[in-house]
Design brief:
The complex is a heterotrimer of chains A (689), B (290) and C (318). Chain A is α/β, with parallel strands linked by helices and 689 residues long. Chain A has 4 domains: 217 residues, Rossmann fold; 78 residues, no CATH class; 223 residues, P-loop containing nucleotide triphosphate hydrolases (Rossmann fold); 95 residues, no CATH class. Chain A contains 26 helices and 24 strands. Chain A has an 8-stranded mixed beta sheet with strand order 6-7-8-3-9-10-12-11, sandwiched between helices. An 8-stranded mixed beta sheet of chain A has the order 18-19-20-15-21-22-24-23, sandwiched between helices. Chain A is globular, with a radius of gyration of 26 Å. Chain B has 290 residues and is an all-alpha fold. Chain B has one domain: MetI-like (MetI-like fold, Orthogonal Bundle). Chain B contains 11 helices and no strands. In chain B, α6 crosses α7 and α6 crosses α9. The radius of gyration of chain C is 24 Å and the shape is globular. Classes of the chains: A alpha/beta (689), B mainly alpha (290), C mainly alpha (318). At the B-C interface, α5, α6, α9 and α11 of B face α1, α6, α7, α10 and α11 of C.
Chain lengths: 689, 290, 318
Amino acid sequence: MTASIAPPAAAVQAEQLDVTYRVRGRDRLVIRGLDLAIAPGESYGLVGESGCGKSTMALALVGALPSNGRVSGGRLEVAGHDLASARGEALRRLRTDVVAMVYQSPGRALNPTMRVGDQIAESFVVKSASWDEGRAQAHEMLRKVKIADPDLVMRRYPHELSGGMQQRVVIAMALAKRPELLILDEPTTGLDATVEAEVLDLIAELRAEMRTSVLFISHNLSVIARMCDRVGVLYAGRLAEEGPVDDVFRRPRHPYTASLVGCIPRAGMSKEDGRLVAIPGALPALGSVERGCVFAARCPAAEERCAAEEPPLTREDDRGFRCHYPERAGALSRPTEAPLAVADPAREAGERPPLLEVERVAKTFGDGARAVRVLQEISFTLAAGETLGIVGESGSGKSTLARVLLGLEAADEGATLRLDGRPLRPGVAARDDEQVRALQIVFQNPDSALNQRHTIRRILRRALRRLSALPPQRREQRIAELAEEVRLPAPQLDARPAGLSGGMKQRVAIARAFAGEPRVVVCDEPTSALDVSVQAAIVNLMVWLQREHGTAFVFISHDLAIVQYIADRIMVMYLGRVMEVGAAADVFSPPHHPYTEALLSAPRDAFAAEARARVRLHGDPPSVADPPSGCVFQTRCPRKVGAICETEAPPCQQLAGGRQIHCHIPAAELERLQREAPVEAPTPDPKET
Amino acid sequence: MTATSTPLAAPSARRARRVATVRALLRRPSFVIGTAVLCFWVLCALVGQAIVPDDPYATDPANALASPSGAHWFGTDALGRDVFSRVVVGSRAILTISLLAAGLATLLGTTIGLVMGYFGGLVDEALSRVAEAVMALPSVILALLALTALGPSNLTLVVVVGFAYSWVIARTVRAAVLTERGAEYVAAARVRGERSPYIMFGEILPNVVPVVIVEFTVRVGMAVFSVASLSFLGFGVQPPSPDWGLQIADSYGVLSAGAWWTALFPALAIASLVVSVFLIADNVQGALSE
Amino acid sequence: MSRFLIRRAGLGLITLWLLSVIVFLGAQVLPGNPARAILGQDAAPASVAQLNSQLGYDRPLLERYFDWLGGVLTGDFGTSYLYQSSAGDLIATALGNSLKLGLVAVVLVVPLSLAGGVFAALHRGRLADKAVTFGGMIVSVLPEFVTGIVLLLALGIWWPVLPISATAPPGAGPLEELRHLILPALALMAGLFGYIARVARAGTIDVLDADSTRTATVKGLRRREVIRRHVLRNALLPSITVTATQIGYMVGGLVVIERLFNYQGLGLLLFNAAQRKDFPLLQGAVLVVGAIYIVMTLLADVLQAVVNPRVRAQVTSR
């Protein structure tokens, strides 16, 4: 580390910082009057939704704003070096020695045509090492980020590595400088939960070892809660609130923070406990709010004064907030009483007659030697009005399963699908009108799911024409009713999707799915593409629609908290196989499948102190094309018992309440183990790099 | 909700967007120049015959190869015909043929491209091979072959040039359709039981229209290029039409004798027309991708 | 990799075969009655019938096609009516001349246009950028004979620094031969410059804006190191394909240029064959033109797979 004799300067010191982007000939303030200080060795989190200015802040700190952006006011210093005025060699020195950055998409951040080893070595070469020394040190760095076979990885190109590995490489590259400030910009977004947990552990460990100051940027409160000492909440370029992490999340002094905390279901909360806190409206366009509080238009606690007069940054002890009525915030973070759903014991016990029956669904892509089986022996049932949550990481086959149910892909021979006892043909074109109507879908990304060239009215009209028996003259009225049901303002019916906010677009997609009174709606990650503040409103809407129409949901998600909130029963998938099925309440308490156990120990809500004992998986999920023998989870299983796991597929253990666990360990034994101590996973096989 | 966050949608959103695109185009000087030049030639093609000072077909052997003067602004050719009048009237054949050929190519190419991209698999594979084989031949050479076999005529010219370019367009449209096909709105349409023709033309086509427009404008330019080249070779527009390529072919032999005007003016006419079309195409592409 | 090579070469062969079908259809089926096409509408029916049987056109279509294809595969392109000699030999000689001309143009244009494109990208939005992209586009969209006429007038007649004939007098040295080729080569390369420069510019801009370039900058590399080590290689990869196809297409321009400069190459041979309805010669020459293009795209794909690790990974996994 570079020895500094002077008293340590703050890692980051921003005073009244303004950052401006020039868009279509007009200046827009992206960050406005930001005051922020990060102490040496401190880990500071910055949260906020997309477009709030988090990433702009990161880029400003490395002097790499896009060409239309600039620091237009105030002061910005990193470890005592002024950034606003740094140019040329001075800026370069700052980048080689003082500040380093880890990016959101490691796949794009790495040079695709340069070997990984050389890219890391380059970080040493810029600090005047020779290439040979650089490579030797790169090797050392790769060990530090726990890559089992550095020699092999050094010779690889980025695209030959998994996302988790790529991010380790980027971290190695950043830490190679031994920076005084490390900026992490959404470093684990886009990684699977189990991989994310591992990367976060690595970051925490390295930080403790290197005593680097950290600016951790994320939209995910639970990740911030786990990784940071203090947190700042950004909204529309303004610092809404800051303070020690636990304190801010537990006792928010700004309504925005409170709503953010409240709109994510806490671990253990379900739809019967109350509705989620939803923030109405959408983020204001860049720099469009000129007077008053930037959050006033969406704030449930706002008064006239808020729209007229911008609240100053108030400091109280180690807290800071920008609100006229900080005392009102606390109440907002708790979910509203008056739940939308009521418990139904018959449904929970699985005693209702099945509406949808799925038996032995398998799906193979390709043929011959290159055949890849992405689904194997999936069976489940769904009762009317029930929600089955399907949880799994990428490669688990959950989306393929959705496509098979809808008839977009045909399952392999031997599968049976039945709706109301009548067989469902494999292809949607072969199903009768009633069956087509009965099964509809809500996709993840409304931008892709809505035809950008059609108006909302046309989209809904077409759906009614295909899916409802309404005569043409009744359709216009029904369109208006549908819009009202999903709280879509009538004038927006004549807009095209591009004119709507993300939340509004998803409402249109939901309205379309409900146009023909479907029996089952498959929801494929319906909230994942949305900002957290909008997610809650969509989840509330879906729960309400389900109660009104008695529709059953197959709710697919990688987000356990959301699934736990909305689902009656949960199915956990891994590499195309079912690991475990059970009532939502049961799945979250032992005994559970070791894989579920690992999923549950990843950070899931903003109250990190409550985080349970951690079970970590090492290494990346195996490829679907080449699944492990025996139990597919055995290569990463922390509770592997021995050879039997490698040779035999696990039995399905039937437990009370329709619960199923696919594991060689008897359920009673699992329960005993899991109530005792957590285990560390085996060190990964060096081959698995 | 803030008034600024969601632009309120008017029923005429589509028209508003078109107006915005046209406005954006009119702010680009090179687009305005290109359009002005193209309009000039279209005007010449429409009414040129009526307004030119001399009959473009009238020969005057006594006055052959006269250099540019007040009487003959662009001089006269080897048969004593007025070059200026011939240049003005010469715009007609090439513009008509090029526009028709580009239109035919767009129609054919868009349909083939939709079929290739939507159905994929063997259909796509087979049509892709055909496209590759056709595209292996520069359009001028493909046209040369067909025009030799069929004998030169304007109709053959339109069909042959249109056919050649349709495969280029098909490939571009195919690529655009492939991206759209993976979009979830197509899956949503299938889930509600829509049939293939509706999905192709009702759902996908509107989304590839910008690509088709750009392709059309580019192909008009390429068609002018090819038709002019073929005329120069004697396989395009047939005499006695005062076509530019023909004029150059007839007269470049006398260049070394110093009679530069007979070839240079038609050459500049072709240049201005091709460049104007490409300026338009380039700007349309820029405006649509914004 | 070898699997990819075989697959790619196989596809190339299929395309080549389809091309032969198209060429055969164009030359033998479209005319309906080749002898009439040759002799003209006024010829006596008897002489048409006689010529048809003399040329073998009275035989079934498929038989004729396989005869021709078999011949081509063994290097026999048939006999030219016009020159009364082996079409294959005529094509080979002409091709040699055209390659000379084409080589001069390619050697001039490829480095120049790639450099121009990169230069424009590095000065994005400034005057230099506009000059290269705008000027490059204008010279490229002009038909070769228009550029040719202007060059001929400017450099051959008004300011006579270059010979206006492309063929050097017999016995001239290689340098003199080269001097004669410059004018037509300039006209040819004008047609390529804009397209290649444009793709090189777009590729460079994409990479300049890419996250990986930002990573390199934030690493603390100097700008010229960033460009040399991280930008150039990735930026020029897309140019490979375009350069190859453009070179393949250059042959189209050869017809016009060789006619204008009266150069005894493949283009002029093609033109003469077309004008005199010498179908065996025309068929053979067109097939060769298409084959050149197919080989160029094949080379581009293989080169792409060799130098681009991502493409390499795709082709080896397939």
